[in-house]
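Practice problem: predict the structure.
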Amino acid sequence: MGWMCNVRPVPDSWYAFSRCTWRLPQAASQRSTLEPTHAGHRSSGSWHLRCTLSIDSVLGMHRRFACCKVEEGTPFARWFSGDGSPLPKEPEAVAMFEAASATLTAAGYEHYEISNYAKPGHRSRHNQVYWKCQPYYAFGLGAASYTQGRRFSRPRGMHEYESWVQRFVQSGGGCPAAALPAESKEEQLLDLIMLSLRLSDGLALHSVQQEYGQDTVASLLPTIQGFLQEGLMQIVPELQQSGDDSAPEPGGCVSDADGYGDEAFGQLCRRLKQGKQCRVRLADPAGFLLSNDVISELFAQLDPSTLSQVL
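Answer:
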């Protein structure tokens, strides 16, 4: 894993890359998913080759990496019980993620979300509803919805789900979440930080400042500066909107070569003070690899006493 091994551990959720293969619909596909399979362990080299061959042989506008980890009590865990971990070691998992990022971006795909790549104009509009905190309904066993500022899930078991539907019909319908408390402003802020940083568009600090106050942003800035210097985050001063997609304005991202010293960080702070658009995003691939740790550290900087005054 090299230098990153000395910074923070890579989340376990990335360890499933070696057990993946391209699965495509029988018809010509515009979208494909890299999903876990039961095939034997593959090296990062062979997996990189499969990625390259898949890109060369299939015309697709969207690619998704579905990462997983072995959870206790699941069929996946039972299949491999006693055989040791079927997942690669940390350095190999990192190499696979980096190879995927390099291969797909070189082929013209935008790494617009931690697990998703798309050709320009072909981001998943469906999933962006989740990542941009917009309301949605979901139906079926265990389906989670977000509407009227409330999150709720339907029962996971069939019998429980049938009983739930029957009670819902007998009650006259309406919003299933109406009786639940709405998300607090603090919960909305945490959602905004986490979901925004999953996207390459990043976190709009000027919007956070407008909605949650200067003190809230000020509490995040020292940690953001540290991540900028470590190469885990980047500054994106402005975004140019294009249809349903968002793309960094050409030349808008401060170069890594600048080192994010006092001058670049000072520019970021001045833009915030002037009320101008200013975003930070996770670097690709290092920041995306360590997204859980970066986001957790930002959460830890939020002062409950300051939040209570603002929110």
